[in-house]
Amino acid sequence: MTARRWLFVILLLLPGLGLILALIGMVIYIALAQSFGLYALNGDSHFTTGFWSELIGRKIYSRSVRYSIYIGVLSALFSVALAYPLAIWLRKPFRGSMTIGAILKAPLLVNGLVAAFLFINLIAYHGLLNQLLMWIGIFDEPHRMQNDRHAIGVLILQTWKQMPFALLLLTGAVQGISDDILDAARDMGAGAWDRFRKVIAPLTVSGMQAALVIIFIGALADFSFQTIAGPTNRQSLSQLMVSYKGRGDWNSAAVVGVSMIVIAMVGSAILAAAARLMMKGRAR
User: Domain 61-283: what homologous superfamily?
Assistant: First the structure.
């Protein structure tokens, strides 16, 4: 491509893409600068690494980092694991497949905060699930299931909310596989699991990587599910950042925000690389 064509392409992209990159770059720059004491909203502005050293040494910060990574990774893995068989099942249209697909994608239309409140009503001490289990005879009295310490409720909500997005990506990837390839694998004696392991998964690894990365980033930084259904003994990074902001400590909040950006970038790269390496190993 000649220099004139490159210039033409850049000029076409500049109004939209240039504005987006400028806004994102500005936000990241301000957050990074505030984490080092610059652009302080309270007090004097001066460069310092004190906010980083102080926060990294706190147990609440390390616990929040571990907890957010735990939620992000498991939410991504569970969502993709559930979406894959559904995508394969819906690969070829059949009677009612469009209705089933629409129902499975319905959580995309539900606001996260609304979903969290509905879930809490379901698992509350006197909620529907406790009442059902007592009526069946499994429980003699209600059990506390809300805000559990292992964040099972948050993982259920994240998987329910994020699985349809993974399904969208994986359905498109699975539908792109030619029938001739799958028929050839079947004729060579490959069973359903071998066809998935050696044919479908390696050919759809790009869709899997995209789903893992996007869901991981979203679950890592989620606030609504954590606030409503999360454990009371641990905070996510988003909750920690909001708590510092509420106290007027914008510099510490910026440290947590930059930490989320770094963890999202590093974690996404690791998940994408791990998925590709795993598929290469299984394809052999």
Answer: MetI-like (1.10.3720.10)
